[in-house]
Q: What sequence folds into this?
């Protein structure tokens, strides 16, 4: 039974989704001041950057509190804010239990087992690991996969959504504006500026979200009102999704084991203990944040908000926060996106300049040239990001695509290199990464060429007929084919190739 | 335990945690910047 307060909330929110937005001049001033302040900090820090190592991994001097801030806020991209609430708005608690919870397990494994091993080496990037164990071929394929994964499609798309909701700017232009502003900031500050801005936006984002959730639930009549207004399936840990989609949801969490921004921060940490403590604290904060986001998506549904699912959380929070706090919330959402864009464009630019070009350059690149080239490649990466942001129908689809590409190319070779180094050979690493990545890309190509768009699930599905049985192949199933292909490629390469003498990082 | 318990617990973590340690974060951030000014040993 809907309360009067809930009805009023729903009506107001429906107005917001038209793009008119309930922001006041004070809110706009706070947003503008905050963004200018963040960019100015990037400018100041850029003057202190002297080497590529300072720029890319903050000189390897980051301590626990800074690592907590930068890990939590970078990985709290808008994919979680909008993607998780998009799913919970449509399906309920399944968003937290299946889409988000597996990440905590994967991050725990990364903290306890992978980080310690990685600290034994002097790596700067994820593809460095492939290069060390398997040679430059595998380094190149991993760099391509890492580049695809690192493109901040979701954050750029998220800024477009925010500008659409608050200023009424069409999504396409919002995406372009977000990219231009973010690139201007990213090329300046590197990881140090990212960590500094993260300290501020991390606190703002957590507090603003918590206050918004408290006010939204208060207006709705508490969490009991959610249970009264939403169907029982919204409270099922598995929801209404087909089982294979649930497996792919959970499987995408494997990306946490080969996450380039995690790896970059592991290399940037002052010690193993610092990164371990940061990841353990981070898991608690991630779980709390994700749970609140999930509940807010459900609250938006319970209030009767009629909007695109990815707009649900933002639409609701715009309605419940008072003037001033509303502006602060939007500022922190934009800063969250910018921080994520900063981190991942840095990795994407580094993948091209440091991992792809540097090993094959005719003349060795000095530090200044490497730094300059990385900054240019950050701009190029932003162009590709905008194109992909406009291609995908949902944030969820984009996230699964990026995770699939990275897991398919990197998980098997890195896991084998770190834990079964005696099995490594250039052929094994190269075949594993090429087989995984190419199967993932071909699968996506086939489903997009022969499949049709399903408006119910908001994705492309290719239905094939096998011996009279119709099998629906979602584009998100790519991982189910790509990961076995990567394992097969590794075993075939192991069998055919010979183990080389130990390689050093070039 | 109920959804209400976990929800209000999570809201509490998000408000109390970052506020309590914000000063620590800022202190460490400023220390990092100072370190970058120092020459490598």
A:
């Amino acid at each position: 039974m809907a309360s009067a307060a809930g009805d009023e909330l729903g009506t107001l929110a429906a107005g917001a989704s038209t793009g008119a937005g309930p922001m006041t001049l004070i809110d706009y001033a706070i947003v503008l001041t905050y963004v200018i302040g963040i960019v100015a900090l990037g400018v100041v820090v850029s003057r202190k950057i002297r080497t590529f190592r300072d720029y890319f991994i903050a000189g390897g001097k980051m301590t626990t509190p800074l690592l907590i801030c930068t890990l939590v806020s970078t990985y709290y991209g808008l994919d979680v804010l909008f993607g998780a609430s998009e799913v919970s708005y449509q399906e309920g608690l399944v968003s937290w239990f299946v889409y988000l919870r597996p990440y905590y397990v994967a991050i725990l494994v990364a903290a306890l087992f992978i980080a310690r091993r990685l600290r034994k080496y002097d790596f700067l990037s994820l593809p460095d690991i492939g290069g060390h164990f398997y040679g430059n071929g595998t380094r190149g394929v991993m760099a391509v996969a890492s580049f695809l994964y690192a493109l901040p499609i979701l954050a750029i798309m998220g800024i477009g959504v925010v500008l659409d909701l608050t200023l009424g700017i069409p999504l396409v232009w919002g995406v372009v504006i977000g990219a231009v502003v973010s690139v201007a900031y990213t090329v300046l500050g590197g990881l140090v500026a990212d960590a500094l801005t993260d300290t501020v936006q991390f606190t703002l984002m957590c507090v603003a979200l918590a206050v918004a959730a408290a006010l939204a639930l208060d207006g709705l009549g508490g969490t009991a009102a959610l249970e009264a207004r939403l169907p029982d399936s919204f409270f099922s840990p598995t929801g209404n999704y087909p089982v294979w989609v649930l497996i792919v949801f959970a499987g995408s969490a494997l990306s946490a084991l080969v996450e380039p921004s995690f790896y970059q921060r592991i290399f940037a940490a002052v010690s193993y203990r610092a990164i371990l403590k940061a990841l353990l604290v981070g898991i608690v904060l991630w779980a709390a944040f994700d749970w609140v986001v999930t509940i807010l998506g459900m609250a938006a549904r319970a209030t009767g908000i009629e909007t695109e699912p990815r707009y649900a959380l933002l639409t609701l929070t715009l309605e419940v926060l008072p003037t001033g706090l509303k502006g602060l919330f939007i500022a922190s959402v934009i800063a969250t996106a910018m921080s994520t864009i900063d981190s991942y464009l840095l990795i994407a630019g580094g993948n091209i300049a440091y991992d792809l070009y540097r090993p094959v350059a005719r003349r060795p690149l000095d530090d200044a040239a490497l730094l300059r080239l990385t900054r240019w490649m950050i701009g190029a990466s932003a162009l590709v990001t905008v194109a992909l942001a406009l291609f995908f129908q949902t944030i969820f689809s984009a996230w699964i695509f990026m995770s699939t590409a990275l897991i398919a190319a990197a998980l098997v070779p890195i896991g084998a290199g770190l834990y079964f180094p005696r099995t490594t050979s250039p052929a094994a690493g190269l075949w594993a990464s090429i087989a995984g990545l190419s199967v993932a890309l071909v699968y996506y190509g086939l489903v997009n060429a022969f499949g049709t768009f399903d408006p119910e699930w908001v994705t492309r599905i290719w239905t094939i007929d096998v011996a009279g049985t119709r099998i629906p192949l979602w584009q998100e199933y790519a991982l189910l084919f790509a990961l076995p292909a990567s394992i097969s490629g590794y075993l075939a390469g192991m069998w055919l190739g010979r183990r080389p003498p130990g390689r050093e990082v070039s | 335990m109920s959804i209400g318990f976990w929800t209000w617990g999570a809201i509490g973590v998000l408000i109390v945690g970052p506020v309590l340690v914000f000063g620590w974060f800022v202190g460490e951030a400023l220390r990092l910047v100072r370190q970058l000014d120092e020459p490598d040993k």
